[in-house]
Amino acid sequence: MTQPSSSDMDRARHEISNALLAMTDLITPIFDKADGMRADLERRGWSPTAAEQVALVWLLNAVNSATNGGATA
To answer: pLDDT of 11-32, one tens digit each?
Structure first.
């Protein structure tokens, strides 16, 4: 097996960086929605702990769906 060249490594780093930036753009609205959901539940009288748990479960499922195309492990 041959070692990747320096230009191959630079290209791979560039592609990984771009993928991470794209992921950030994808995930930011999901985190914002979870924060809003938690705040809304608290306004409706839910305890902060319960609201956090509901928002967390929703967030984990939403991130899983966004990153895996809805596939489950």
So the answer is: 999 999 999 998 888 889 999 9
**CB contact at 8 A, 30 and 63:** yes
The CA distances from residue 19 to 3, 10, 11, 15, in Å, are 23, 14, 12, 6
Which residue in 1, 66, 58 sits closest to 27, CA to CA? Answer: 66
Hey, what are 23's tokens? 């992921």
- Report pLDDT for 44: 98
Tell me if 37 sits within 8 A of 55, measured CB to CB.
yes
- Which residues, in sequence order, are CB contacts of 35 under 8 Å at separation 6+? 55
